[in-house]
From TrEMBL:
Pfam family, one: UDPGT
UniProt-listed Enzyme Commission number(s): 2.4.1.-
Identification of the protein by name: Glycosyltransferase
EC top class, as a word: transferase
Keywords, comma-separated and alphabetical: Glycosyltransferase, Transferase
Keyword Transferase in annotation: yes
Classification via InterPro entries: UDP_glucos_trans, UDP_glycos_trans_CS
Highest taxon in the source lineage: Eukaryota
NAD as UniProt keyword: no
GO molecular function, one term: UDP-glucosyltransferase activity
Family affiliation: Belongs to the UDP-glycosyltransferase family.
C-alpha cells in the first residue's frame, strides 16, 4: 500500500507543473509569487520557484515560506561574480548571474521534468537566456513582465531603435513615441539604456532581442492604466509573442504582524485622508544631502506624514540596497538636527520597513510619495491613493512621466538641479497633492482606476480571463 508521502508525490506528478525563474530582487519575486497562488488555487497547478544565490535575503525567505504547499522553491548554487567591476550596475550583475547559473538551471529543470508534469517555464525579464535550456528540454518558455506596457513596448522596439538611432537616447530631439504609449522624453527613458557604451545597455538590448523568442508574455498590468497600448499589444502580430495582461498582481493576504504594527495604530488616530506615506521601496535609497532636503520639505509642507526612513546611500547610488533590502542600524541619525522633535506632532518615522499595502489601504492615508516602482504603483492604484512621483533608477523615470502626464494619478517633482530636489519643491508638490486642485483631480482619477483594477481581477474580468487562457494552454501541453 502506498504511504501518504508517496500518494502526495503521485498526485503532484499528475498535476500540470510550472517552473518560474524570477530576476533577483524582492520586487520581481512578489508578483511572480502572486501568480503562483492563482495557478495553484484556481487551476490546480503545482509550481517550483527557482532562485539565484545572489537574491538570497530574509525578505525572500519569508515570502517563499508563506506560499501554498503546492509551491516549492529551490536555490541554485552560487556562481562567481568577483570578476565584475565594482561599479557594475544591477542589470549587468543580474544578467551575468543568470548566464553563469544556466548549468545549475539545466540540472534543476531536468529533475523537474523527470519527476513532474512540467508544462511551462516562466522567466523574468533578465532570464531570457534560460530559454535555451527550456527549449532544449522540450519545455515551452514564457516571459513574465513585471512592469507596465510602456516599458514592454520599449523593450520590444529597442532592437529597431538601436539600429536606427545614432545618438544617445537622452539626446533625442523629440520625445519617443511608441505605439499607443504616452510620449517619453529621452532623458526619462529606462536608466540602463541612457549610456549605449555601457554593459548594462548591451545586456538590456540582448534581453530585448531574446524576448521575441517567448511563447507568450505575461504582463503585470491592466488595460485601464494604458488603454491604447493595451489594445495594440494584445493584437496578433506575426513573429511577436502574444501578450496576456494578468495584473494587477500585488502582495495579498493579511499578516498578523502587519496588523499589530505601531504605524497602523498611529494611523488610526489621524483624520481620514490626511497622511502622506513616504517610501522608496525595498531597494531605493537617497543621498545624505537629499535625505535632509526631503525631511525639511516635509516639515515645510505642514502635512501629516508617515516616512519609512532608510540610511542614505554612501556613494549616492540610489540602487545601493537593491540586493540586500537592508538599512543600517539607525537611519534616524542621518536626519537633520531637531527634525524628529519638531515634527513629532504631525509625523511618524519608521526605520527601514513598514507594511506598505496595509498603510496604503488605511483610511487615514491620502497620498503616497513614491519611487514609482511598479509594485508600489499598483498597490497605490488598488488602494485608490494618488502619488508624488520621485523616481530613482531602473524604469522609474519613465513610470513617473507616464503616471503624471499619461494616467494623471501622480504629481511630479521638478527635475533636480545639481542632483538635489529642493525642500521648497518638496513642500509645494506635497501640499498640492494633499490640498490642491491638481491633487483632487489625481484622487478622482485613481479612484476610477481602483474600480477598474478590481473588475479585472473578478471572475470574468480581463485579467481573470487572460490567465485562464494561459493556464488552459499550459494544461494542453504534453
Amino acid at each position: 500500500m502506498e504511504d501518504s508521502n508517496g500518494a502526495a508525490a503521485a498526485t503532484r506528478s499528475r498535476r500540470p507543473h510550472v517552473a518560474l525563474l524570477p530576476t533577483p530582487g524582492i520586487g520581481h519575486l512578489i508578483p511572480m509569487a502572486e501568480l503562483t497562488k492563482l495557478l495553484v488555487a484556481r487551476h490546480g497547478f503545482s509550481v517550483t520557484i527557482i532562485t539565484l544565490a545572489i537574491s538570497a535575503s530574509t525578505a525572500q525567505a519569508t515570502l517563499l515560506s508563506s506560499l501554498p504547499h503546492s509551491v516549492s522553491s529551490l536555490a541554485l548554487a552560487p556562481v562567481p561574480l568577483h570578476d565584475l567591476p565594482p561599479d557594475a550596475n544591477i542589470e549587468t550583475t543580474m544578467a551575468v548571474a543568470i548566464v553563469r547559473s544556466l548549468p545549475g538551471l539545466r540540472d534543476a529543470l531536468s529533475r523537474l521534468r523527470s519527476s513532474d508534469n512540467l508544462v511551462a517555464f516562466v522567466a523574468d525579464i533578465f532570464g531570457t537566456d534560460a530559454f535555451d535550456v527550456s527549449r532544449e528540454l522540450g519545455v515551452p518558455p514564457y516571459l513574465f513582465f513585471p512592469t507596465n506596457l510602456l516599458t514592454l513596448s520599449l523593450l520590444l522596439h529597442l532592437p529597431e531603435l538601436d539600429a536606427t538611432t545614432s545618438c544617445e537616447y537622452r539626446d533625442l530631439p523629440a520625445p519617443l513615441r511608441l505605439p499607443g504609449c504616452f510620449p517619453i522624453p529621452g532623458p526619462d527613458l529606462l536608466q540602463p539604456i541612457q549610456d549605449r557604451s555601457n554593459d548594462a545597455y548591451r545586456w538590456v538590448l540582448h534581453q530585448a532581442r531574446r524576448s521575441w523568442e517567448a511563447e507568450g508574455i505575461l504582463a503585470n498590468t491592466f488595460d485601464a492604466m494604458e488603454p491604447e497600448a493595451a489594445n495594440i499589444l494584445q493584437q496578433t502580430v506575426p513573429g511577436r509573442p502574444p501578450v496576456y495582461l494578468v495584473g494587477p498582481l500585488t502582495q495579498s493576504g493579511k499578516n498578523e504582524a502587519d496588523e499589530g504594527a505601531e504605524c497602523l495604530r498611529w494611523l488610526d488616530r489621524q483624520p481620514k485622508g490626511s497622511v502622506l506615506f513616504v517610501s522608496f521601496g525595498s531597494g531605493g535609497t537617497l543621498s545624505m544631502a537629499q535625505m535632509a532636503e526631503l525631511a525639511l520639505g516635509l516639515e515645510l509642507s505642514g502635512q501629516r506624514f508617515l516616512w519609512v526612513v532608510k540610511s542614505p546611500s554612501d556613494g549616492g547610488d540610489a540602487s545601493e540596497a537593491y540586493f540586500t533590502v537592508q538599512s543600517k542600524e539607525d537611519p534616524f541619525r542621518f536626519l537633520p538636527a531637531g527634525f524628529v522633535d519638531r515634527t513629532r506632532e504631525v509625523g511618524l518615522l519608521v526605520p527601514s520597513w513598514a507594511p506598505q499595502a496595509a498603510v496604503l489601504n488605511h483610511a487615514a492615508t491620502g497620498g503616497f510619495l513614491s519611487h514609482c516602482g511598479w509594485n508600489s504603483t499598483l498597490e497605490s492604484v488598488k488602494a485608490g491613493v494618488p502619488m508624488v512621483a520621485w523616481p530613482l533608477f531602473a524604469e522609474q523615470r519613465q513610470n513617473a512621466a507616464m503616471l503624471a502626464e499619461g494616467s494623471r494619478i501622480a504629481l511630479r517633482l521638478p527635475r533636480a538641479e545639481q542632483g538635489i530636489v529642493s525642500r521648497e519643491d518638496v513642500a509645494r508638490v506635497v501640499k498640492e497633492l494633499m490640498e490642491g486642485e491638481e491633487g483632487k483631480a489625481a484622487h478622482q482619477r485613481v479612484a476610477e482606476l481602483r474600480e477598474a483594477s478590481a473588475r479585472c481581477l473578478e471572475e470574468g474580468g480581463a485579467a481573470y480571463t487572460a490567465l485562464d487562457a494561459v493556464a488552459n494552454k499550459w494544461k494542453a501541453t504534453n
